[in-house]
Amino acid sequence: MLNNKFLNIALALLCTTLLLSCEGEEEVFDWTPVNSLHIIGDSEVPFGSAQQFRVDGFTTEKNYTWTLNGNPADTIRKGEFANIIFPQPGDYSLVINDGDLQDTLKVKALPVTAGFGRNAVAVTESSDTLDIPVNLTFGEGATATSLNVDASLAYTLGGTAVAGEDYELVSANPLVIPKEAETANMRIVLLNDSLREEAKTITATLNSVAGATGLSLVDSVPLRTYTITINDDLKYVAFTAPKTDTLASVDSSGVRTFEVSLSAPVTTDVTVPYTVSGTNVLDLTQGEVTLLAGQTTALIAIEVQPEAFAASQTISVTLGAPLVSEDQEVMYEMDDKNMPVGNTQTLVIAVPAP
Fold first, then answer.
1. Residue 294 sits in which domain range?
2. Is residue 175 domain-shared with residue 153, that is, in the same domain?
3. Is residue 222 classed as helix, strand or coil in its secondary structure?
4. Mean pLDDT of 122-130
5. Which of 54, 98, 192, 249, CA to CA, is 20 to 30 A from 44?
6. Peptide bond connecting 174 to the previous residue in cis, omega within 30 degrees of 0
7. Averaged pLDDT, 143-148
8. What is the number of domains present in the chain?
C-alpha cells in the first residue's frame, strides 16, 4: 500500500514537470507521412512527341491516377507508366496520386529544329572529304540536346558542280540523326583533277523532316541551305631553293644542279622551259626540264668550269611558263605585282685560289 502511494506521488511529479515544459509557444507536430511516390522521366521534352514516365514506389495494392495540367493522362500496367503527348511548347505539371500520396513533375515541352550550323564554306578541290554537320537545336534555355527517336531529314543537292565529275555523295538521303544524338554529318567526297577551271559550287538544301512530331526545320532559311565553293587547286612550279649559291654548290665535275619543284603531283608530264644568262662556258642559253606524271621534282644540270675564269662570274637560270595546255592547272605562283615567285636561281662562280 505504501509502495502504491509513493508511485502515485512520482507520477504526479512527472505530469507536473511535463506540463511546465509545455508552457509558452505551442509546438506544432507534422504527422504528414513521407512521400514515397516519385515520377521518373525527362523534365525537358520535345513537344508533340510521345514520352513515357513511370512511378518509383509502385505497388499493385494502390490505384494510381495521372493528370497533365489537371487533365487525365493515359496509363499502362495499372498506372505504373504513363504515355504523355505534350501538344504545344510550354510548361506542364504532371501529377501522380495513389489516394494517399502525390508527386508532381514540372515538364518543359520544347520546340526542336534541325538545320546546318553555318551556311557556307570555301575549299579547294584537293580537300578530299567534307563532313557537313546537321544539328538539332532545342528551345532557348534548354539543356536537352537529343531526341528519343530517330530524326530523318530529306535534302537535295544542286549547284554548278557535277556529281560523278566534281564530287560524290557518300551519305544516305534522307540523312538520319540517330536517337540520343544531337548531330549527323552529310558526307561529300571531292574529286580532284588537273584541269584549270572556274570555281564551282555544291548547294545542299534541307527540304523536310520526319521523326519526332515536334521536330521542324530551322526558322532561319539560310541555315536550311549549305553552299560549298570549290576553288581550283592550282599547282605551281618554282625552284626548290630560289636563292644565290656559291661555288661550293658545284661538284668536282663542274656540274651544278638546280632543283625544280611542282607544288603537287599531276596525272600528266609537265615540261618547263628555262633560260640561262651570265657567264656560261658552254654557251647554253636555254633548255627544258620535265617533271614526269606523279613526280614533284626534277633537276636542271649546268656544267661550269670556274678555272677558266679570271674573276668571279654569275650564272642565272630562269624558269619559263610551264608547257601545258591552257586547261591544265599548272602555272606560276604570282606575287602582288603579278610577277612569278621563285622562278629564278643564281649561281655565283668564284675564281679558285691559286
1. 235-349
2. yes
3. helix
4. 84
5. 98
6. yes
7. 74
8. 3
